[in-house]
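Components:
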Amino acid sequence: MSLDPEAVRKVASLAHLEIPESRLASLADELSGILAWIEQLDEVDTDKVEPMTSAVAASLPMREDRVTDGGDAAAVLANAPAVREGFFVVPKVVE
Amino acid sequence: MSRLVDLTLAKALEGLGRREFSAVELTKAYLAEMSAARPLNAYVLETPEQALAMAQRSDEKLARGEGGPLEGAPLGVKDLFCTKGVRTTAASRILGEFTPPYESTITSQLWRDGAVMLGKLNMDEFAMGSSNETSAFGPVVNPWRSRNSNRALSPGGSSGGSAAAVSARIALGATATDTGGSIRQPASLTGTVGVKPTYGRCSRWGVVAFASSLDQAGPIARTVEDAALLLRSMSGHDAKDSTSLPVEVPDFSASLGRSPKGLRIGVPKEYRIDGMPPEIERLWSDGIAWLKDAGCEVVDVSLPHTRYALPAYYIIAPAEASSNLARYDGMRYGLRAEGATLRQVYESSRAEGFGDEVKRRVMIGAYVLSAGYYDAYYLKAQKVRRRIADDFSSAFETVDALLTPTAPSAAFALGEAKADPVAMYLNDIFTVTVNLAGLPAISLPGGLDAEGLPLGLQLIGRPLNEETLFTLARTMEQAAGFEAQAERWW
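Structure:
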């Protein structure tokens, strides 16, 4: 599968990345090169093989449903680009 | 008398315990070496005041006879580990001056055990790279140089700062992380020892996430014994990481003195690749001979899906990365760029904040996870991953460990492999299989090539069987007698 510049534009939009027009064609080449190399996986017979979703065969542990953390608004906000009255300030979300 | 920084961790701890020198003296010796070694660009942040304060506390504890297992040992921390009150960047512009209000589990365990923090170490951006050239702070320079050449070499990556710092004696040991080879490949390129533990052995909590099903932290150290000491403090169950294994931490040092006699070692024929330098072939044969001499039985084994590991990795790792890195949107921390709409703020913050390799991987990840391509790429890769893991399970029915080279080459020049992403990915050809299968592995220096550059050998073990790896690695370390050091040019 090779990607054309239009497909790169779409993927960039899915990934929330601004890509300048001038870079679309070269990125299409780079990504197509990587994908072409990846496609050798088609040689592997994977019929009746279960996908491996975890590196260790352990089930996720459950814990008691109780509060273990919190009450640290100042620490949570400490690295924010903009803060007002204990809240994150973000650009306008609703038009 | 040798310099304090020439002592191994084990020797330094002995000297500190006997009060032959103080933790403050040892830390000062390291801080002085660090300032002299700035041309290596190994540290992205030095924390001398914190280091001296911690060393002072260590001396007080040692004086009271209350020293911990690493009391007074000055360590470097890869800048992927969150450190409370100390800037943590993952070597990315997008994190800006991010200063975590919390401490990663692993580093908190090191400080609990008495270690001293010297500073934060350079790395490939978000641990994505094998040469340290994707760092927003510029590449680390390998302390090693070819004979008769001043050309700057790469220390490997992504834990290039950790490996270079340990090799150049500007850290007594270092934390590192390994998603596809990022501990072992730089260890191999710098003549140091690197351990990638079993997935789940060390907590991932507070370590900036790259590919969560593959990421695992471990130490880079000067000797096998030093690595065993560090890994013991770094390991252990952590309720804050749901993939952390609830198992006891063995005393890894105890396995160093054990005899490897009777252990069966597999040599996987698929790791003999075209174009491998003859010196790496030779070192591999030396390694086999060392283990035979020690009473091990060496047999050929087959891991038939080896060649598919890298392409599978380059679906799975970018897929997980694209999801993990979605959090960097400029809202709650890090870089926020200008934009007329919320979406434009997201897109321009990420465009300004991420480097080229990170963008490539985030886009590959978004693509392979997107509607219509998920089955063809992501699901296929997960099935191939299963077959790779099954190859190892079959091999471990008849052998106790596997021996391979760590990397397909010695250290290469900075700038050499940058142009072609796939060529760079091939650096991890011998290491990436282990991450996919979740297994433990160790890289140790075995010898030098004709240019005088270090080459590493890798031992791979059964899940949670790091102890056998330490026994074998210690045996090989003694047989190799690797004493070489980078000649100091900085």
